[in-house]
Amino acid sequence: xxxxxxxxxxxxxxxxxxxxxxxxxxxxxxxxxxxxxxxxxxxxxxxxxxxxxxxxxxxxxxxxxxxxxxxxxxxxxxxxxxxxxxxxxxxxxxxxxxxxxxxxxxxxxxxxxxxxxxxxxxxxxxxxxxxxxxxxxxxxxxxxxxxxxxxxxxxxxxxxxxxxxxxxxxxxxxxxxxxxxxxxxxxxxxxxxxxxxxxxxxxxxxxxxxxxxxxxxxxxxxxxxxxxxxxxxxxxxxxxxxxxxxxxxxxxxxxxxxxxxxxxxxxxxxxxxxxxxxxxxxxxxxxxxxxxxxxxxxxxxxxxxxxxxxxxxxxxxxxxxxxxxxxxxxxxxxxxxxxxxxxxxxxxxxxxxxxxxxxxxxxxxxxxxxxxxxxxxxxxxxxxxxxxxxxxxxxxxxxxxxxxxxxxxxxxxxxxxxxxxxxxxxxxxxxxxxxxxxxxxxxxxxxxxxxxxxxxxxxxxxxxxxxxxxxxxxxxxxxxxxxxxxxxxxxxxxxxxxxxxxxxxxxxxxxxxxxxxxxxxxxxxxxxxxxxxxxxxxxxxxxxxxxxxxxxxxxxxxxxxxxxxxxxxx
Length: 570
Hints:
This protein is an alpha/beta fold.
């Protein structure tokens, strides 16, 4: 068989069912063989969106996401997606190609860069295959590397002559490669963690992306019920707890609110989550600095990276939760615990400071009212994919009302525009589930052409563009730092995203009044195919999250966007 056939055979043997990418002649021997072996090929309109789609598939299933990009420009276009999956720990395989080995250093087409050297800092492992007969072994190695330990992306570069060359094998490629068992926690670590958490008056759990895959997590719910503790989620990672579970405390901003009031948790279990930007960094604004910490992570170096842990456990998140549940003992049903749980799980339902503000501002929807009305119109159990910037903050305030099965979005790279690809991958992963993409007008411009992908592949994704004619977080940050009249390359036009979607063959509708929002969202859902709701909101209203991200005014030094204050060198 050819090297391309051998690659397709190896992937199919490992259960790969779908791959996302763009055509390139370098890959034809593998693409044709993949089609013949039942691997679905989903072609997007940009390579970074293809990698994002493989990422969304991995986040939705917990399985490997596979993407492909041809040599040269295809590969360099894919790099942005690799960076996102690396930062957010998504198990992903990118297949790329390069010129024939004999034509290295001959100024060959698409052969001027060392693709493996470029990819290496953005991956767990990168390798250029040099012998066709080694393809099955190296594919197995790539998948094990991506899926075991801390998950992450890997790259295999296949010179085109290897994919088209014929190879004779002494025996059929093996198809019985199994992943190793995930690591379990040490018994003494479990005992110490249970003792610490049981002795706390206000214990809480922060459950993150390490519990990705089929949602919700039965192990997390079982532990929360046994321990009677509230569960928070960092960033846009939602779904590990059932939406209607009594112990679901939703976004970690609720913990931050309690901490600001002096009523934050005194002990926190981080499971599948990391300290960093989405948990308030080193400042203690979310997890109080005097709170005890039990940190579970597959990477021992991560435990203590940002702040010390009282108990560190290097183990699989699910297996650790199962062990903690088994060792816990009786459930604390005291009035004091009940009061803490009620406070923690009730923060998200507090009245919003925007609730009494006008529905419209200067002829456009108030973003709080517009986004809340759109979210309220969704059916429970959907997958929400939410882009970055202020849109994420507006959605977070309203998300519990949608009761989604899961939510995902802009992660540690803060990379706007990744979410059309994530939504495509999530819809392919769960074709019977509604996927709703909420994105700002800035983020929508990066991959607007992916409406074409949704239409061609029959993906009924509903895209709600929150259109405030600006890069809102940038604009409002500039105004906070330099004055209310400041606007430096942070304004945008009032784009007709609904008409753009229609041009690609999708359903599109524009919404200008609050009374129209619910009807428009329902019409988009009922359409049954790709749809776009262009939600015209005001850019005059800033979400408080922007101010909170501008360092710490009044605490000395120079205020920096997104980071701790820059202290004076003296």
